[in-house]
Amino acid sequence: MTRILLTRRWPEAAERRMAELGEVTLNPGDQPLTAAQMRQALADYDVVCPTVTDALPAEVWPDNPRVRALCNYGVGVNHIDLAAAKARGVVVTNTPDVLTEATAEIALTLLLMVARRAGEGEREVRAGAWTGWRPTHLQGQLMTGKTVGVIGFGRIGQSFARKAHFGLGMKVIYNARNRASPEVEAETGAVYESSLDELIEVSDAVSLHCPGGAATHHLIDATRLARMKSTAILVNTARGTVVDEAALVDALKAGSIAGAGLDVFEAEPKVHPGLLDLDNAVLLPHLGSATVETRVEMGMRVAANLEAILKGEAPGDRVA
Ligand code: DGY
After folding, report:
1. Per CATH, which fold does 3-98+291-310 belong to?
2. pTM to 2 decimals?
3. Is 100-283 in the same CATH topology as 3-98+291-310?
4. Of ligand 1's atoms, which has the minimum distance to the CA of residue 264?
5. Is the dihedral of CA 59, 99, 193, 240 positive or negative?
6. Rounded Cα gap, residues 293 and 107, in angstroms
C-alpha cells in the first residue's frame, strides 16, 4: 500500500479523502517537521504532502529516497528545490486555482485596513481609549478612484485587479514578466505598465502577487521603496522574501510611504521587531488561503493530483 505523509493537520474532510488513497500518516500534534524528520520522511514514505512551512532544499534529501511524489498543499513551491526533486525523478504538484479568490480577498482586506487605519482603530477601541466621534479622528485615505499597481499578474493578481477595479472603482495598472491577453486586460480592467519603476512611482498602492524565490528576492528594496509616493501603501500577500523587511521598516518609520499591509514575512513565523511597533503596518499571520472552503478544496486538489499519479496518469498540477 502507498505510504503517504501529511506533514501538518488538514481539514478533516481532506484528511479522510487522502486516507482513501493509501496508508496515511497524519500529524495530530501539527508541529512542523525538523530537517532531520523531513529527511527520514523522504526515506520512509512513497508520497510526502508538504506545506509552505516545510523547507525542502537539496541538502535535505537522503541518499536513497523512497519518495516518488511531493504533493504540495498550497500553490507556492518556493520552499521546494524543484531541480533537486526532478533530479531524483520525483514528481511535484501544487494546488492552484482553489485559493485564488481567498488570497485576493486578503490583499483587498489589507489594502483597506491600512488605507482606513482599521488596525489602529480596533486597537483603540479594545484599549478603552476611544473618546467618541470627532471630525479629525483617525482620518485615512479613500481608495475609490485611486491607482493601484499590481506586480505579478497570475490568477491571484488578476482576481485582485478585478475586485479593486470593478468593486472599488480603482484604476489598476500591472507589471508582469508577460503581458496578459487583451481579453484578460478587458475582463480585469487592468492596464499594462512595462516599467516596474514607473508603476511604483505613479501608484497610490502597490500590491504584490509574484512568486517567491531567487528571481523576486528583495524586488521591493530600499531604492524601490524610495520611488513610491509618500502617501502610498504597500500590500504583500505573495512571499515575505519579495520585500526587504528591514528597508520597509525604515521607510514606514521615516514616513517615506504611508503604510503597509503584510500577510507574509521574510522569516515566518518571525516578524521583524521593528514592524510590531508601527501603527502604519497591518500584520496578518499568513491567512491568504485561510477560509474553511478553500482549505478543504486545497486538500481535495492534492488528492486529485495524487490519485492521477497513482493511476499512472499525468497529474493536473505538476510543477516538476
Ligand atoms: C500558498 O498556497 O502558497 C500559500 O502561501 C499557503 O496557502
Report:
1. Rossmann fold (3.40.50)
2. 0.98
3. yes
4. 5
5. negative
6. 18
Beta-sheet strand order (sheet of 233-236): 190-192, 171-175, 147-151, 205-208, 233-236, 259-262, 281-283
Assign domain 100-283 to its CATH superfamily: NAD(P)-binding Rossmann-like Domain (3.40.50.720)
Q: Are 314 and 308 in contact (CB under 8 A)?
A: yes
Active-site residue flag, 116: no
What residue segments make up the domains of the chain, in order of their start?
Answer: 3-98+291-310, 100-283
239 belongs to the catalytic site: yes
Q: Each residue's pLDDT tens digit in the chain (320 positions)?
A: 999 999 999 999 999 999 999 999 999 999 999 999 999 999 999 999 999 999 999 999 999 999 999 999 999 999 999 999 999 999 999 999 999 999 999 999 999 999 999 999 999 999 999 999 999 999 999 999 999 999 999 999 999 999 999 999 999 999 999 999 999 999 999 999 999 999 999 999 999 999 999 999 999 999 999 999 999 999 999 999 999 999 999 999 999 999 999 999 999 999 999 999 999 999 999 999 999 999 999 999 999 999 999 999 999 999 99
Which of 7, 71, 80, 103 to mutate to test ligand 1, by most ligand atoms within 8 A of the CB atom? Answer: 103
Q: Report which protein residue has its CA nearest ligand 1's atom 5.
A: 76
